[in-house]
Amino acid sequence: MDLTVDAKDRKASSILITEVLLGTICCLPAYDNYLKKGLEISEIAHNLSSTTIEKCVTDLLAFFETNITEEVYTTTYKADYPIMKLLDIAFWKLGSEKG
After folding, report:
1. How many distinct structural domains can be found in the chain?
2. Residue 53 lies in a domain
């Protein structure tokens, strides 16, 4: 039985790519359907592409600075989570509740 996969014929989804990036280097939240819905509700750009990624990250960091106070960050999460993981949790929860 041959288990090799020809990768040139396959494309990774943006969900998979961002899940891996979140899980390894925490530079982006995982762009799944709930997160996208949460971003949409919060009026933050969520169309992730090579030309918009910088704006998405800038908007996410601005949201974090405006809405997540140092007190909430340190007392609730004890700074154990990277910023992008906290944003992933927050927007996923918002999207799952309102979606």
Report:
1. 1
2. yes
- By the 8 A CB rule, do 32 and 15 touch? yes
- Give a yes or no: residue 15 inside a domain: no
User: What gap in Å lies between CA 64 and CA 84, rounded to an integer?
Assistant: 9
Encoding tokens for residue 42? 């919060």
* Residue 27 included in any domain: no
DSSP assigned state of 82: -
Q: Report pLDDT digits (tens) over 40-97.
A: 998 887 788 778 888 888 999 998 888 877 777 777 666 678 889 989 988 999 999 9
For residues 99 and 33, the answer to whether their CB atoms sit within 8 Å is yes
Residue 17 lies in a domain: no
